[in-house]
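Shipment paperwork, digital attachment
Item: protein structure file
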Amino acid sequence: MSRTSGLSASERVIIGLLTFFLIIAFTLELYWIVYNDSLVARADHHLFARLFQIYGDADRAYFDRITPMAIGLEQINVFVTQIVNVWLIWAIVQRVYYRHVLQLLVGSYLTYSVVLYFWAAHVTGYPDMRYQSPYTFFLFYAPNLPWLLGYAYMSLDSVRHLCARLRRDPGAA
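Attachment content:
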């Protein structure tokens, strides 16, 4: 019997989310890191560049007004966060004792980063939004929701498990 056959539904959902995030990181986001300086020129003939052109109506920092901050954040996401995501998948499958602590850290960090991205844009009046309309607000928020909701779910799952463990063994704290 394989280790994955004994995984709970929640664990399978989390592994599925992490796999989705890994695939996006090593395709779309890696493409952006490599070609961010030529997206405008590539938009007519490269699918990923075209997708960034569309998203650029909502946040030009990811298309034609790219900032060093955006580059740095995406590099951390692709080259650091994904290593931690693979580590978390391994910890879930291997049932490592610190799995929920790691999951809570990763989930909290990524949930916070998406909330910070949304909040910073909101309090500054969405300066990188080409124009403000229901369409551009949808474009800004909807593609980022899987990260917000997925990592928030992971955080809550770990909080639930860790609190249950503390209720069973109050001396563990």
